[in-house]
Design a protein that fits this description.
The protein is of the alpha/beta class. It has 22 helices and 17 strands. The chain has helices at about 10-25, 35-60, 65-95, 105-125, 140-160, 170-190, 200-210, 230-240, 255-280, 305-315, 345-355, 370-395, 430-440, 440-460, 475-480, 485-495, 520-530, 545-550, 560-565, 570-585, 600-605, 625-630; strands spanning about 125-130, 135-140, 245-255, 285-290, 295-300, 320, 325, 330-335, 365-370, 395-405, 410-420, 470-475, 505-510, 530-540, 555-560, 590-595, 610-615. The strands form four sheets. The protein has an eight-stranded mixed barrel, surrounded by six helices. Strands 4-5-3-8-9 form a five-stranded mixed β-sheet, with helices on both faces. Strands 1-2 form a two-stranded antiparallel sheet. β13, α17 and β14 (about 530-540) form a beta-alpha-beta unit. It is elongated, with a radius of gyration of 36 Å. The termini are far apart.
């Protein structure tokens, strides 16, 4: 009796696949379309290698086993090889980026090949040959499997060639390596039956593909062990392609700043990792970490979002441990129903990030997104597009609101207010556009374009407004955080030969609370050049005395909401009095805004307020109306020392 247990290469291949299997199941992996088809390819390879070993053992044990059983093992092994080749078609199709949406139709071809081949393999005769050096199966059944594998090879090559530029280079090359390895090993085995290389070739190629193409680290945030932003984009793209959607729950830690300040960055990340690991207990969740303090959870439509949120909320309300200390979590939540998520992946990602960005930071707040919210988003997207268009076409004008000396009643300042024009010539509401401009970063382009236009006007009409002391210009928090802001503003002034002494730059009090030196350096450069700086909307939440002490502030403008409460006779009168007294003791001037009538003027006049601004004196004026007002006003303030680098005309 002859025996030939030539399974050395198969054993090595099996060991490689078992090691790969342990890696695949040791961590959470983002189940992309490409990865799922790769996983099917892996399963077919593992099955094929095992059946290769079983069929060789069965042939050796033919005297013990029945011929029917031996032929069955040989046939089923041949079917597994064809199944692997058909799965390779699906993997390559998925790698082209066109898999989803057409998935069922695209799977018809490989399934048809597999089904027809299986029928042929079991219908036609099969034989096997064994001696001390060789062992293999032969006959029409084997020829059917070879023909099916060659057909799969040809189809796979055609898919690659027709989608050459659509496929990632790495995926394309690995697919070509695998295809050529199959053909090469088949030719070698046909020439020399001693080398049974098919199993080890499949195994090596799959290990290579995993570590270089399907590596889960590509989509994992190493800090938190959740999936990252790139993973979320791929996840949404796959959902869009395959035609299904998931619910979204987004959680933002509200007290992350406190936690990081007390326990440090490492302690905060340790807590975040613990939260992510805890959430993985929900097996049907996909967890994404965005912007350090935001976790986005995706889960199937079949799951009850309210029930899931209640369970997670209860988990979050327990005590969490950092080192030897316990800490409570505060968080806000956004819920986006699956049915409202756009079909397009880019729009879906933009929508999720939009609502996450506008999430209220208040503890325990739950924002349930509705169709109306999506309509509001579309409206804001339209405004954002309009702002980009206005910057490109320079549809930005200036309105001027006079500021009067409360004692003399003379106009001494003016605030230059930016106005953005619509295509029809109307102006967009600043109340609508400013939050969007700041969120999108368009405020940077708007601000510089507005200041450039303003300097051009001042340069041209400087003699008419020489009597004014300063012109106020608003700077947003985002603008103040730009390290080159002061240099860019000074460069524009130099371009139009306008002196920095013309301008009083108004910044929000909260801007000074941002860490780092950028804002302070910008202020220092502007003040050193001759400009002044004022605090806008002062007194809204707190007095912020440190800012008044640390920064070279010349004036403070009282917050409009504070002034409304003051005008209504509330206890805010004491707050306004305190602010005025502090400002007076520190040599700062005070501007009261929102003054609308005689009674309010009389009320403001009882406090140490230096200037007033509001519609009682004048609404914001266009350029011509503003300069007409200056010409008609014969008793303006003392004037600016120099409006331009030249000598002022009398």
């Amino acid at each position: 009796m002859t025996y030939n247990f030539n399974i050395g290469f198969q054993a090595v291949g099996l060991i490689l696949l078992i090691m790969l299997f342990s890696v695949l199941n040791s961590r959470h992996i983002l189940k992309t379309v490409a990865y799922r088809t790769y996983n099917n390819l892996f399963k077919c390879a593992l099955l094929s290698v095992c059946l290769d070993i079983v069929s060789i053992i069965a042939i050796n044990l033919e005297p013990v086993l029945s011929n029917l059983l031996v032929s069955f093992f040989c046939r089923i092994y041949l079917v597994s090889i064809v199944a692997f080749s058909c799965s390779l078609i699906s993997y390559i199709e998925a790698s082209t980026g066109r898999f989803g949406g057409l998935a069922k139709r695209k799977l018809i071809l490989p399934y048809t090949i597999l089904g027809a081949s299986a029928i042929g393999i079991f219908a036609f005769p099969i034989a096997y040959y064994i001696n001390e050096r060789e062992i293999y199966s032969i006959g029409p059944s084997t020829n059917v499997s070879v023909a099916a594998i060659v057909l799969c090879y040809v189809i796979s090559m055609l898919i690659i060639l027709s989608n050459w530029n659509r496929m990632q280079r790495g995926r394309r090359n690995s697919a070509l390596v695998l295809l050529n390895a199959i053909i090469a090993t088949g030719m070698i085995q046909n020439l020399n039956r001693r080398f049974l290389l098919a199993s080890i070739a499949m195994s090596i190629c799959l290990v290579y593909m995993y570590f270089f193409l399907e590596n889960p680290d590509d989509y994992v945030d190493s800090r938190t062990d959740a999936f990252n932003e790139a993973g979320l984009k791929v996840f949404l793209e796959d959902q869009s392609l395959e035609g299904f959607k998931s619910h979204i729950l987004a959680y933002r830690l509200s007290n992350d700043g406190f936690i990081e300040k007390v326990f440090g960055k490492d302690g905060y990340l340790e807590l975040t990792r613990e939260i992510v690991h805890y959430l993985w207990k929900y097996s049907r969740l996909s967890i994404f970490s965005i912007n350090e303090n935001v976790l986005i959870l995706s889960f199937p439509e079949s799951m009850d979002p309210e029930k899931l949120h209640s369970e997670i909320r209860a988990d979050f309300q327990k005590k969490w441990v950092i080192g030897q200390s316990e800490v409570e979590l505060s968080f806000s939540t956004v819920y986006v129903p699956a049915k409202l998520i756009p079909d397009n992946a880019e729009e879906a990602f933009a929508s999720i990030m939009f609502f996450v960005g506008y999430m209220d930071n208040e503890t325990d707040e739950v924002f349930r997104v509705t169709e109306k919210d999506f309509e509001e988003k579309e409206k804001k997207d339209g405004i954002q597009d309009m702002l980009s268009w206005a910057i490109d076409k320079n549809f930005i004008e200036t309105a001027y609101q006079p500021i009067y000396d409360i004692k003399s009643g003379q106009m001494v300042f003016a605030e230059a207010l930016m106005r953005v024009m619509n295509e029809d010539g109307s102006f967009l509401s600043n109340r609508d556009i400013m939050p969007i401009a700041e969120k999108s970063g368009l405020i940077l382009g708007l601000g510089l374009k507005h200041f450039d236009n303003l300097c051009a006007i001042i340069s041209k009409r400087y003699a008419e407004i020489y009597s004014l002391q300063r012109i106020g210009v608003n700077l947003s928090v985002l603008e103040c955080l730009q390290k080159d802001l002061a240099d860019e503003l000074l460069a524009i002034m130099e371009k139009y030969a306008v002196s920095p002494t013309v301008f009083d730059f108004e910044i929000l009090g909260r801007a000074a609370d941002y860490p780092g030196s950028t804002i302070r350096l910008n202020i220092a450069k502007l003040v050193a050049a001759g400009s002044t700086v004022s605090l806008d909307q002062y007194g809204h939440d707190f007095l912020n005395l440190k800012t008044l002490i640390d920064l070279p502030i010349s004036k403070i403008k009282l917050n409009l909401d504070l002034m409304k409460e003051f005008m209504n006779g509330s206890s805010m009168q004491q707050v306004v009095a305190l602010i005025c007294n502090i400002a007076d003791s520190m040599g700062k001037q005070v501007v009261a805004v929102g003054v609308e009538n005689d009674a309010q003027v009389e009320k403001v006049n009882k406090f140490s307020v230096d200037y007033v601004q509001g519609n009682y004196f004048s609404e914001p004026l266009g350029e011509d109306s503003f300069f007409n007002l200056i010409r008609d006003n014969k008793h303006l303030g003392t004037g600016i020392s120099a409006y331009s680098k030249g000598t002022p005309e009398s």
